[in-house]
Design goal:
By secondary structure, this protein is mostly helical. It is built from eight helices and no strands. The longest helix has 41 residues.
Amino acid sequence: MNINWGFIVSSLPLYEKAAWLTLKLALWGISASLIIGLVCSVVLYYRIKVLERLVRAYIELSRNTPLLIQLFFLYYGFTKIGITMSENTCAIIGLAFLGGSYMAEAFRGGLESVSKAQIESGLSIGLSNMQMIRYVILPQAFSVSIPPLGANCIFLLKETSIVGAIAIPDLMQVTQDLIGIYYQTFEALFMLVVAYMILLLPVSVALTWLERKVRYAEFGN
């Protein structure tokens, strides 16, 4: 099989630009989903009335609807009620909406892993609820939650391949355009695989390193 290396080289600037856009969308979406997930997990952990029901409804809605449908609803559905958002804004909100539910479950598992003895010890020395969360519960919960949180981050980074459906020139959209125009299917898909490997491998390695450091309490070494 002959590979058109000239086409690959000429397409590099397009893939570089698309990769940066994909990474930016993923970072914003992941950051927002972490915040949403943490807040939701605290609500579930403390069983805050009314809010708990809303959070559970959000988690069920988010996890049981595809990201593509969520993006279409944000991009096309909201215009019917006079709310118009840019493509990038819709992508970030969609990733955050989907990722927040998964992050919430990951955080909740970590929070529930903290033993009652730890909590009772903190309360016995006069710590308030906020101090308990900050100094006792969250540090221990975070170390337990690292593996699922890392998996969710990688999952959301890969889910950015869907955002091209709303005309965002991400890696997938650029690949589809090049295939449609030049019919260089193998070369375009090869560049797509390489681009995602470049984005995902460093994240995977960094998360693996962080998991080991937290698990074995080797911070500062």
